[in-house]
Amino acid sequence: MLYRIAQLLIKEFLQLKRDKSARFRLLIPPMIQMLLFGYAATFEVFNVSTAMVDQDHTPESRALVAAFVHSSRFELSTVASTRDEAEQAVASSSAQVGIVVPPGFAQLLRKGQSAPLQVLLDGTNSNTALIALGYVNDIANSFGQSMALDLAQRTGHALARPLVHIDVAQRYWYNPNLNSRWFFVPGVIGTLTLITIVNLTAFAIVREREVGTLEQLLVTPIRPAEFILGKTLPFFLIGLIQVGLVAAVGMFWFHVPFVGNPWLLFAATCLFLISILSIGLFISTICTTQQQAFASNFFVLNPMFILSGFSFPIASMPHFLQWITLLDPLRYYLVIIRGTFLKGVGLDVLWPQMAALAAIGAVLLTVSVLRFRKALD
């Protein structure tokens, strides 16, 4: 049996060696996608296009405008003279944020009173709008505190309403600089592996059936179980190699620290690969052409990505969707890979995710193998 499986492995790798485009697809696109995701996927917001309206025309209002202009978070795209012009800039998408400094702004500050500041936000992208509003509040609060202290120093008297100041000692564990790439890059490793391995497994077996070589293999002495093992084992090895290469890009190019146990990550990766290989094998049993496999992959992979917690928090999803995420192997692998990369946690913490991956892999593999054996018969 081992001899027959070895011969089938040799056949698969020889076929891969002859197919230059396949070698290119296995190595270059994942690296390019890793670089693109690493740079493009981020929660941070910079250079938000801003329409600024200064209706006060005082040194204080100009200082506030300068604070926004000199911030890397905002980019002055429109200098408006009225609020309507700022509204038009936001409505036409030439500005994402409109900031209006009303008349009498400086006069209220000089009296030690709260001064209003109107902010118009393009809410079509709610995430960007909320983050930008947080930056506006930070800049405005910092400016207000500096003006209040300056007023107290110039008058030599304490403010009628004393300035309340609380020192908050902040300490961010596992990601001291709150670098969002440290969150996204480990997730990209799992996502790219999922897409690549499921596509390889489903397309390779369907291609064998479509071109007629599957029937030729079945008339040989090889048994169905040996055929399944010989067809999936190369993709398992390819998955391990790809995880290693993409993880190396994340560690050495994006400088994402790895502080965990590499053997624990290796074991979890093996369980994850078994799960997604089973998904590709199952897809191959319900498809007869590569076009059907492509459509089925799209139907399966997109929900797995969305429900995995890669970018959308699972806790924020409706309860019935949270239950569905328990069937997604990518959900558990992302917890493991982020935990080993950033936190350095061990098996005592990650064993529930490991157990869930093992259970999902065992069930999916059993169902897929039984269905594939029936399709072969």
From TrEMBL:
UniProt KW Isomerase keyword: no
Protein name from the UniProt record: ABC transporter permease
Organism per entry: Rugamonas apoptosis
Transmembrane regions? 26-46, 182-206, 233-256, 262-287, 299-321, 350-372
- What is its subcellular localisation? Cell membrane
One MF term in GO for this entry? ABC-type transporter activity
What the entry lists under PROSITE patterns is as follows:
ABC_TM2 (PS51012)
Q: What is the lineage of its organism?
A: Bacteria, Pseudomonadati, Pseudomonadota, Betaproteobacteria, Burkholderiales
Q: Which family does it belong to?
A: Belongs to the ABC-2 integral membrane protein family.
Matching entries from InterPro entries are given as:
ABC-2_transporter_component (IPR051449), ABC2_TM (IPR013525), ABC2_TM_bact-type (IPR047817)
- ABC transmembrane type-2 domain span: 149-375
This protein's membrane topology, according to the annotation, is: Multi-pass membrane protein
Q: Which GO terms describe its cellular component?
A: plasma membrane
Key words, A-Z: Cell membrane, Membrane, Transmembrane, Transmembrane helix, Transport
